[in-house]
Write a structure and sequence with these properties.
This protein is of the alpha+beta class. Helices cover about 30% and strands about 25% of the residues.
């Protein structure tokens, strides 16, 4: 629709300029120096206008969080990525709001987690838990406090698995994760689930740490994921 509108506008402008030019030539209208210069170079002017509108018309639309297509009504757009080795932190975006990132300075080694209200899309909390040099107990306690209807987004950075125990993995699995049982040392993993979910979440990506396939020395490539989260209904 936008392309058709832009094309019509270009045609109208072109007709106007050509009409004015023809009239000025037929009736020998004397134009001032500036107008004479412009219409004397009509092809150049027209080509610039045409290129401008064509570029604007063909520019792909931007959707929330930069995802590839718009989400339907009563869905929240999200995009997230794991950390890159131990250099660049993960990023979590929901409804065009960056919730966690290195720029916001609220990410850290281990498992990074953002909690979002399933009805409103409002950010509730962000935390990260060091699963290499830290303790798993704070992670377990935090997981137990999550309320039903909460959207939970998780992303690893550096190493998110060494300190995980069976209890922590079970609590994350209850949020809809299937890969958490196999998450290993320096694996890259992103996950979006929810408290009270009745099925396994379709939003999960996991890449194993493998020295033969790693993109970075000691770490696999960054894993990214986007999608549309259904809004919780009463």
């Amino acid at each position: 629709c936008f392309l058709t509108g832009a094309a019509k506008l270009v045609v109208v402008i072109a007709i106007f300029l050509l009409t004015f030019y023809v009239i000025s030539q037929v009736f020998e209208i004397k134009m001032d120096a500036n107008l004479g210069h412009i219409f004397g170079n009509l092809p150049v002017v027209f080509s610039k206008i045409l290129v401008y509108f064509l570029l604007k018309a063909t520019k792909p639309p931007r959707y929330k969080c930069g995802i590839s297509k718009a989400c339907p009504e009563k869905h929240f757009a999200f995009k997230m990525s794991s950390g890159a080795a131990n250099v660049v932190g993960p990023k979590i975006c929901v409804e065009d709001n960056v919730l966690m990132s290195g720029v916001k300075n609220n990410v850290g080694r281990g498992i990074n987690m953002a909690l979002v209200n399933g009805k409103t899309g409002e950010l509730l909390d962000t935390k990260f838990f060091d699963m290499w040099g830290g303790d798993v107990a704070p992670l377990i306690e935090f997981l137990k406090t999550i309320q039903d209807g909460t959207i939970v987004l998780m992303a690893t950075y550096d190493d998110g698995a060494t300190k995980l125990n069976e209890e922590a993995r079970k609590l994350i699995a209850e949020l809809g994760s299937t890969s958490i049982t196999n998450l290993g040392f320096r694996d890259n993993w992103v996950f979006c689930g929810g408290k009270g979910i009745k099925t396994k979440s379709p939003f999960e990506q996991h890449i194993k740490n493998n020295k033969d396939t790693n993109k970075y020395e000691g770490w696999p490539e960054v894993v990214e994921m986007e999608g549309c989260i259904p809004q919780k209904q009463d």
